[in-house]
């Protein structure tokens, strides 16, 4: 009986640019999408941003050859693409429609209420505050990775994150977010 040996993927440093970008996109899709939504404030625009950023990433000649660095690099490409779009656009942030944070399979109603409350609080923050919370707290980047993506010192990431978390807490506890209550009949 012949046994088939499964071949593994080539080492990261030997992969083509397309393979590197594709793997980064596959492994980081949900984080990229969440970050793109936080930047754009709109799901459709977020999908367009990811697509545009992937094309830009493929146009580069030398992506990082380490998985963690490549992931941070892809987020930075997307952020820079978003900044470039913002420079060209004349649409004011106040004109955009807020994102409804009601998607996703939630196991418990309390968790869903908490998630919606946090999303509403995030929508009340300044874009730079929302961005740092999305990167560190929601996407799970370390301070150094977030600093690389934002192209700022680590200390700046730490101070922005601290102020953004305080602003989020104030938005939630200060009455800027409409509180939700459990449905009748639960618990």
TrEMBL record:
Q: Cite a single Pfam family from the UniProt record.
A: Sigma70_r2
One Gene Ontology term of the biological-process aspect is: DNA-templated transcription initiation
Q: Write out the entry's keywords from A to Z.
A: DNA-binding, Sigma factor, Transcription, Transcription regulation
Which source organism? Chenggangzhangella methanolivorans
Family that this chain belongs to: Belongs to the sigma-70 factor family. ECF subfamily.
Which GO-annotated molecular functions does the record name? DNA binding; sigma factor activity
- What name has this protein been given in UniProt? RNA polymerase sigma factor
Which residues does the UniProt record annotate as the domain RNA polymerase sigma-70 region?
Answer: 31-89
């Amino acid at each position: 009986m012949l046994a088939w040996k499964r071949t593994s993927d080539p080492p990261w440093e030997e992969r083509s640019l397309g393979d590197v970008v594709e793997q980064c996109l596959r492994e980081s899709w949900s984080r990229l999408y969440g970050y793109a939504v936080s930047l754009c404030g709109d799901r459709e625009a977020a999908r367009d941003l990811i697509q545009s950023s992937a094309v830009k990433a493929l146009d580069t000649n030398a992506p990082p050859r380490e998985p963690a660095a490549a992931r941070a690099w892809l987020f930075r490409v997307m952020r820079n693409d978003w900044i470039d779009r913002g420079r060209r656009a004349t649409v004011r942030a106040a004109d955009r429609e807020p994102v409804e944070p009601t998607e996703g399979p939630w196991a418990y109603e309390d968790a869903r209420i908490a998630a919606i409350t946090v999303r509403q609080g995030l929508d009340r923050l300044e874009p730079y505050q929302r961005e740092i919370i999305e990167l560190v707290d929601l996407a799970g980047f370390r301070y150094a990775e977030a600093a690389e993506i934002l192209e700022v010192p680590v200390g700046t990431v730490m101070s922005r994150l601290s102020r953004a978390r305080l602003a989020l807490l104030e938005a939630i506890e200060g009455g800027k977010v409409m509180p939700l209550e459990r449905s009748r009949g639960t618990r």
